[in-house]
Fold this sequence. Notes:
Bound molecules: thiamine diphosphate
Low-confidence stretches: none
Radius of gyration: 28 Å
Helix content: 40-55%
Amino acid sequence: MLKSRMIEEKMLILLRQGKISKWFSGIGQEAISVGLTMALQSDEFILPMHRNLGVFTTRGIPLNRLFSQWQGKLSGFTNGRDRSFHFGSQEYKIIGMISHLGPQLGVADGIALSHVLKNESKLTAVFSGEGGTSEGDFHEALNIASVWSLPVLFCIENNGYGLSTPTTEQYNCENIADRGNGYGMESHIVEGNNILEVYSTVKQISESVRKNPRPVLIEFKTFRRRGHEEASGTKYVPEDLMSFWKSKDPIDNFESFLIVTKVLSKTKIDEFRTEISNEITSGLKLAFDENEIKADLKTELNDVYKPFDCQEVKPKGELKEIRFIDAVSDGLEHAMNKHNDLIIMGQDIAEYGGVFKITEGFVEKFGKNRVRNTPICESGIIETAMGLSIAGMKSIVELQFADFISSGFNPVVNYLAKSHYRWGQEADIVLRMPCGAGVGAGPFHSQTNEAWFTKTPGLKVLYPAFPFDAKGLLISAVQDPNPVLFFEHKALYRSQRQQVPVDYYSIPIGKASLIKSGLDVTIITYGAGVHWALETLNKNSEISADLIDLRSIQPIDYDCILKSVKKTNRVIILQEDSLFGGIASDISAFLMENTFEFLDAPIKRVGSLNTPIPFANSLEQQYLAKANFEHSLKTLLEY
Ligand SMILES: Cc1ncc(C[n+]2csc(CCOP(=O)(O)OP(=O)(O)O)c2C)c(N)n1
């Protein structure tokens, strides 16, 4: 506790000297981090917050590495890419927060799930402030952990204020621990400023949880004695409250206790102080002496994704005519057979087989541990998938409809997408996204929302149009250790049939497919757009076109596009999504920059109307890009 306190005191000085940029103080709360970390086994994961310095010091991270992290230097944990405690370390079994507070609660569920699945008697501890418990992530994570009996200690540091918001404006129950009841979960209240109480309670609970896996909610009562961060002050805190909690300082009180009980002497304490002070000084010297990070463009771009050498398995052997939907199911089954550590999670996917029946029969083949029905918790389950990945397991999450990804948006774009770039941790996850319009399903069951994700660095986005591609690309998506969003157009599920190899094969990610070859125009599209284009070309046999099915829209096969446009000199880009801000706009800009001299006509984009997707058939037909494609193509050819 003393080490953590003395580091903080030093940081406050450095902050005043302008030598560090920001500090979130945990002064007065040290007993919780230190007591909990000491009570756990060193190979059990802890997911701390911004005031849990004691977790890091107790796990023995060399101080120079912590200081370098805070200064954005190479010996830190993020190559200068993230600040403060926003990093993880497999070596120290610490998974730091992302700024959004709540998501790590679900990540802890995933790590704990891996322990259950691997029959390890370990637990995972995750922290949140009382403010963070107001986020939906808290509710989802506790609910999932309870339904699945996951060995997670949900540790809530109730320190009186969330920034300036007092607990009375944050929640309306007496204790946060009382909520345990609502989740069917055991809960405890612990005097968080008493190191002995923290240590002994957590030790006792952990021993029991390792034997009998279950989640436990622990509310630590404590107080935040400095500002939210140093610049923000504490004007809003009544003085008597501050002095009350000062009298409950965990270090002062423990020190007095140790002196009274003659465990420690003043001299020994002074020795400790000198020792720690020397350790801080030498750690700081190392960090300050370290050079600033040199920006290297190639390294930055390369580290967005985990390198993946796709082991292409060429299709061969017996063919069978199957529907798109069967191809997805078949690809999934092959992937489950190939990767014993692959878990599928989704709503109603187990005995019921999923709303599209894609996983029908999977429970019988792979068991309920690997084919998991989930509560309606998109965020929490995507976070759980992230936790599985941290624990070295692969997972697929089936979104019931791609539209519902909005309820799990935060972990996708902030956790999964940024994790490898920030601290080298892959998010080995495939999100299956049944999407698309033309089925009379209205505004919330029809969207093709790939553009929400293609603009976020760190995600891969696949969108097959044929059964053959669906199976081969899904297999590659599972192989790929990066987060992949796999779009499956619902209207193609039962309308598209093809001869597909029965065996396992894969298709490299990032390669477009040239479906038709011609001379006069290049049509670039994907998903249902491919079939609209084919329909148009079949009806107008005089049109000689290159038809490119992108298949992968992040990354995009620019080589294929360039080659074709330089040959045909005209290009039309067709997307099902509303026109503004979609893939077509980006490809169009790329072609303007790179093929301007080759073009004989302005680039044409065709997308759906900039309205939500309407329900009634006549309105939906008018909405869809298909309605304008043929006319636009002919106009372009006549230009
Ligand atoms: C989703 C989200 N909303 C708002 C913030 C800004 N913010 C950062 S910390 C904080 C207060 C957190 O309070 P609490 O969870 O009680 O933790 P404490 O800081 O008191 O330890 C707020 C509002 C944020 N980081 N993330």
